[in-house]
Design goal:
alpha/beta, TIM Barrel, three-stranded antiparallel beta sheet
Length: 357
């Protein structure tokens, strides 16, 4: 049984007005890792592609023009649309200082769906222009958070999310868990997924965080998820917008190189150990001024480093000079592949897992 065979037996992946052939949602990875190149490629192969709005105006494509994040996001959505007729959305961090205006920009450009994490997006529906067709998919890490959000949206806006992303602690980037919960089996994706599914039914649930193989996809779908979100494994593809040095760092990574860091956002995160993080641990990276004002919760006086500079440096410097977010399974990646070949491999892995039943 292939992934498509599985879907035919269950019915197509449907999220609101959207129907997509593959139950694969690309993770929105910032800064500058998932832009129109990767998002459109995923959409063209039948999944849901996702642009990351984080500091998008400072990425190499737009930095010299000195435009706003909202202007850059508008251009990038239009760029992605010129490459695909498929489904794609935008990932916008709740913690960003310009969350409200980025949401409005994405909706005005009629992005298919907005994924919102790194905080609970309580006011998200109220930010959409009247009559907007853009769907909303908050990212949560517990049934409690999902239920709170649904009740709040229902009471205040008279609507529910169009989908829920249930993200476990093996994800890359910012994690919605306390440091002591990250390795606790009680908070694993396998432990939180079913309670979230039961709490939000019939809203579609997308399982995320540590999804690496076709076997992982099958396990999540068999557990009741409607789709999976994949980020880390899609970085090492030819279509990914990340620079080659970033991709090569994934390929060179060993299991012990993947570490938990404390982000100025106020959340733990998962990244690849390098010279930059060693300097963070040595206390030599404290910012002297805030140049970006990008994060609502960032207290510059206490921040161990500037998150914007750290992520931007990973785009324009060597792999040792910036922050390289990565999921727990990044060390398993050994080669850069065309996205279609990777999707075929995921399908083969899914089929082999099905054959064992």
């Amino acid at each position: 049984m292939t992934i498509l065979d599985h879907l035919k037996a269950r019915g197509p992946l449907t999220i609101g007005r959207l129907s997509v052939p593959l139950p694969i949602v690309q993770g929105g990875m910032g800064v500058g890792i998932s832009l129109s190149g990767l998002a459109s490629a995923v959409a063209n192969l039948g999944g849901i592609g996702v642009l990351s709005a984080a500091c998008i105006s400072r990425t190499p494509r737009y930095a010299k023009e000195k435009i706003t994040d909202e202007e850059a996001l508008t251009r990038e959505i239009r760029r992605a649309r010129s490459f695909t007729d498929g489904v794609f959305g935008v990932n916008i961090m709740v913690a960003t200082a310009n969350f409200d205006t980025l949401v409005r920009a994405a909706a005005e450009e009629e992005a298919d769906i907005i994924f919102a994490g790194a905080g609970l997006p309580l006011k998200l529906p109220g930010l959409l222009p009247k009559g907007s067709k853009t769907l909303l998919a908050p990212i949560v890490s517990s049934a409690k958070a999902a239920m709170l959000l649904i009740k709040w949206w229902g009471d205040k806006y008279g609507r529910v999310p169009d989908a829920i992303v249930a993200e476990g602690p093996l994800a890359g980037g910012h994690l919605g868990f306390k440091p002591e919960q990250i390795n606790d089996p009680a908070f694993s994706l396998g432990s939180i997924l079913d309670p979230i599914i039961q709490a939000v039914r019939p809203i579609p649930v997308i399982a995320a965080g540590g999804i690496y193989s076709g076997g992982d996809i099958k396990q999540a779908l068999d557990a009741g998820a409607n789709a999976v979100q994949m980020g880390t494994r899609l970085v090492a593809t030819e279509e990914c917008d990340a620079p080659d040095a970033f991709k090569q760092a994934y390929i060179a990574a060993k299991k012990e190189d993947i570490v938990i860091v404390q982000s100025p956002v106020g959340m733990p995160g998962r990244a690849l150990s390098n010279d930059f993080l060693r300097s963070v641990n040595a206390g030599t990276t404290a910012p002297t001024a805030c140049r970006y004002h990008c994060i609502q919760s960032c207290a510059r006086q206490k921040a161990p480093y500037c998150i914007a500079d750290a992520l931007l440096n990973s785009l324009k410097g060597t792999a040792q000079e910036g922050l390289l977010f990565a999921g727990a399974n990044a060390w398993r990646i050994k080669e850069i592949l065309p996205l279609k070949k990777l999707f075929n491999r995921l399908d083969d892995e899914f089929s082999k897992e099905s054959a064992h039943e």
